Amino acid sequence: MLSRAMSQHHGSVAAVARLLRDIEALLKHPSVTVELGHRGVNASITLLAVQGLTAYVEGNRRQALDDLATATEEIRTRLERG
Known about the structure:
There is one protein chain. The protein is mainly α. It contains 4 helices and no strands. It has one domain. Helices cover 87% and strands 0% of the residues. Helix 1 packs antiparallel against helix 3. The longest helix is centred in the N-terminal third of the chain and has 26 residues. The chain is flat, with a radius of gyration of 16 Å.
């Protein structure tokens, strides 16, 4: 029974990772990039943040830390510039 619960959890985590990769693909679409830009959102930073989340969900904590720290710093810098 425990192995079945662990297997279902693993499948759920894999589903989350797939959804994040789908979001990553959408963020690479030119129309999404343009729409985000109109809202003042940098698509490259958004993509990096999603990649960081994907890395974290997949257990790659070092890559997640690097990606999310970089995204955070970029957002902070843009906010400080006004």
